[in-house]
Specification:
The chain folds into two domains: about 1-250 and about 365-420, FAD/NAD(P)-binding domain (3-Layer(bba) Sandwich), CATH 3.50.50.60; about 250-360, Alpha-Beta Complex (Flavocytochrome C3, Chain A, domain 1). The chain contains 15 helices and 19 strands. The protein has helices spanning about 1-5, 35-40, 60-65, 80-90, 95-115, 150-160, 230-240, 270, 300-315, 330-335, 335-345, 400-420, 455-470, 475-495, 500-520; strands spanning about 20-30, 50, 70, 130, 140, 165-170, 175, 190-195, 200-210, 245, 250-255, 275-280, 320-325, 355-365, 365-370, 380, 385-390, 545-550, 555-560. The strands form four sheets. Strands 1, 2, 6, 7, 8, 9 and 16 form a seven-stranded mixed sheet that branches. A five-stranded mixed sheet has the order 17-15-10-18-19, with helices on one face. A four-stranded antiparallel sheet has the order 11-14-13-12, covered by helices on one side. Strand 1, helix 2 (about 35-40) and strand 2 form a beta-alpha-beta unit. Helix 2 runs parallel beside helix 12 and helix 13 runs parallel beside helix 15.
């Protein structure tokens, strides 16, 4: 796997010093909940540039439905939310991260409402709170039933546009992070970007915050929008940052399964309101699987569905199970977005069963950070879905990720602003905005002939291989096969020079797919959302983070902070 894991930089066939140079204090890569929230805080002291590779609506954030988990009511408590998160995380959460995010959640929500975010209210005029799987209390706030993400994205985008000192670069693709040398651990000093109109540009920054979202596109079946191609994870790895816990990919149990239609997520809140899962004989099979039936943790429900589909396939054929929402009163009012979508396919949830199937949903692993969002590379922060903060452990509790983006966005942005105010930075000595250090954006890999490469074919083959071999149920044999296969594909894909995002995305997907597959092969146990059929139990000695870092051998393990007795605010994990 050397070729995949030792890849350094994209080879840019010209001198970076000839490119346009842009300077800022903080560069935020990503304009979802985490990036936008970070930009607002960072702009309190200093200039900020925010990149989004599509428009501002093309984010996982904008697609979120169910809502934001936060302790708001008197019948709920911080401790209960903490315990639910720890249980879902299956022994791999960092408790200090869990407490940091959950304790700060209510303040971040109140702030959002102050900025004009609309949230649904109940008949008494109080915030309406829903319940989702794994939560022991109703604590999920939402907007227009199932359009929370859209409203959150709108609110934060408007706030950012009005924030002095923030420049938004839409449709601007970050190719790679700028480092003064190619040794792992060299400080990050911004990013090289590509804009369809302006071409390649160097953006120099004193601090760079990765908020580039998840990796759902790695899988043939995914709830994520097409932009979720793991670019940030790949860039951070190439720059020498540690990435951790990559085996943990959460699969959502219920996405609409209609050939030709996108895999629209059917929010867990629908099951929270009483929807049942039925097999092809209309038997409610979750009753045989878990005491919480349809509200069991997501990994349990996803596994039960794929096993049920396999049974059906061997009996009478079948590619999905059914979601029965017919008993939910007022479905149309509670879930107007879902109702409108189903109507397009001539389905009425009050009368029809809905075909559903699991799909890759959330990347739990990511760039390893401390409680301020700092990675182990100077100058580089990571927040939101691209980070591994330790909040989610081995499995994410529903609706905790928008919360994480809000809280960690504020913390990381504030940390950068405070650094700027104090006049300190993580820049290397001698770095000057007026005189950028010479940077050669080079690769260790010698370019092959350009040749013809069918990018669509590489992309779809990778997604199918990940779905079949690194999906909901995994085994050592299949994982080893896919690792070898990705290594082979890397030989003729990573040394090609591309001049557009489609090629760079495929290279990023290939690298991150390999990181996921290797982590899953290494983790010889089942834990949280990682299921090995050849190792069905959790192993106490594997309650550690598995980390990979370019140039540092195959894998290293990091003990949980609380297990090691460390209280690391501000220190690297
Ligand atoms: C269908 C769906 C429903 C969900 N429902 C919920 C829910 O109800 N509650 C909940 O808590 N979570 C939910 N989630 C998860 C949640 O939406 C995400 O985890 C969260 O929004 C991630 O936010 P983020 O800011 O980290 O990334 P995103 O919102 O994904 O933003 C990523 C940003 O990075 C940019 N970017 C990426 N690569 C590059 C690049 N190379 N160059 C420049 N820019 C780049 C993108 O353009 C985008 O602006 C849901 C997810 C999906 C897909």
């Amino acid at each position: 796997m050397d070729r995949l894991f030792d890849q350094r930089r994209y080879l840019i066939p010209f001198r970076s010093s000839l490119l346009p140079q842009i300077f800022t204090d903080t560069l935020v890569i990503g304009a979802g909940v985490a990036g936008l929230r970070a930009a607002i805080s960072a702009a309190e002291h200093g200039e900020v540039i925010v990149l989004s590779k599509g428009d501002l609506k093309s984010t996982n954030t904008a697609w979120a439905q169910g809502g934001i988990a936060a302790v708001l009511g008197k019948d709920d408590s911080t401790e209960s939310h903490v315990q639910d998160t720890l249980v879902a995380g299956a022994g791999l959460c960092e408790e200090d991260a869990v407490r940091e995010v959950i304790e700060n959640g209510p303040a971040r929500l109140r702030e959002l409402m102050g900025w004009g975010m609309r949230l649904d209210k109940n008949s008494e005029g109080e915030l309406a709170v829903g319940r989702e799987g794994g939560h022991s209390a109703s604590r999920i706030v939402h907007t227009d039933g199932d359009a929370t993400g859209r409203e959150l994205q709108r609110c934060l985008s408007e706030k950012v546009r009005k924030t002095h000192g923030v420049r938004l670069f839409e449709n601007c693709f970050a190719l790679d992070l700028i480092t003064p040398g190619s040794e792992p651990g060299s400080p990050v000093m911004g990013a090289i970007t590509h804009h369809p109109k302006h071409g390649l540009q160097m953006i120099w920054a004193k601090a760079t915050i990765l908020a580039s979202g998840g990796a759902g596109v790695l899988y043939r079946e995914t709830t994520n929008p097409p932009q979720a191609t793991a670019d940030g994870l790949a860039m951070a790895y190439r720059a020498g940052a540690s990435v951790a816990d990559m085996a943990f990919v959460q699969f959502h149990p219920t996405t609409l399964y209609l050939p030709g239609a996108a895999r629209w997520l059917i929010t867990e809140a629908v099951r929270g309101e009483g929807a049942k899962l039925l097999d092809s004989s209309e038997h409610r099979f979750m009753l045989d699987v878990h005491p919480l039936a349809e509200l069991a943790p997501r990994d349990v429900v996803s596994r039960a569905i794929v096993r049920q589909i396999a049974k059906q396939a061997s009996a009478a054929g079948g590619s999905h199970v059914w979601l029965d929402c017919r008993s939910i009163r007022g479905f149309h009012d509670r879930f107007p977005g879902m109702t409108a979508l189903l109507r397009k396919f001539d389905l009425d949830p009050a009368e029809d069963l809905i075909p559903v199937h699991p799909a890759a949903h959330y990347m739990v692993g990511g760039v390893m950070t401390d409680l301020s969002g700092r990675s182990d590379v100077p100058g580089l922060y990571a927040i939101g879905e691209s980070a591994a903060l330790g909040l989610h452990g081995a499995n994410r509790l529903a609706s905790n990720s928008l919360l994480e983006g809000l809280v960690m966005g504020e913390i990381a942005g504030r940390t950068c602003a405070e650094m700027k105010q104090a006049g300190s930075s993580s820049r290397p000595a001698g770095w000057s905005v007026a005189r950028p250090a010479p940077v050669s954006v080079v690769s260790d890999i010698r370019p092959s002939d350009q040749g013809e490469l069918d990018l669509d074919d590489v992309r779809s083959s990778l997604r199918s291989a990940m779905w079949k071999n690194v999906g909901i149920e995994r085994s050592g044999g299949k994982l080893r096969d896919v690792c070898d296969m990705l290594d082979f594909w890397a030989r003729y894909t990573l040394d090609k020079i591309f001049d557009e995002p489609a090629g760079w995305e495929v290279q990023n997907l290939l690298l991150v797919g390999a990181l996921v597959a290797h982590s899953a092969a290494w983790r010889e146990e089942s834990r949280g959302c990682h299921t090995r059929i050849d190792y069905p139990d959790s192993m106490p000695e594997l309650a550690v983070h598995d980390c990979r870092r370019r140039g540092h051998g195959a894998v290293s393990t990091v003990p949980l902070r609380h297990a090691a007795g460390v209280r690391p605010r501000g220190a690297l994990v």
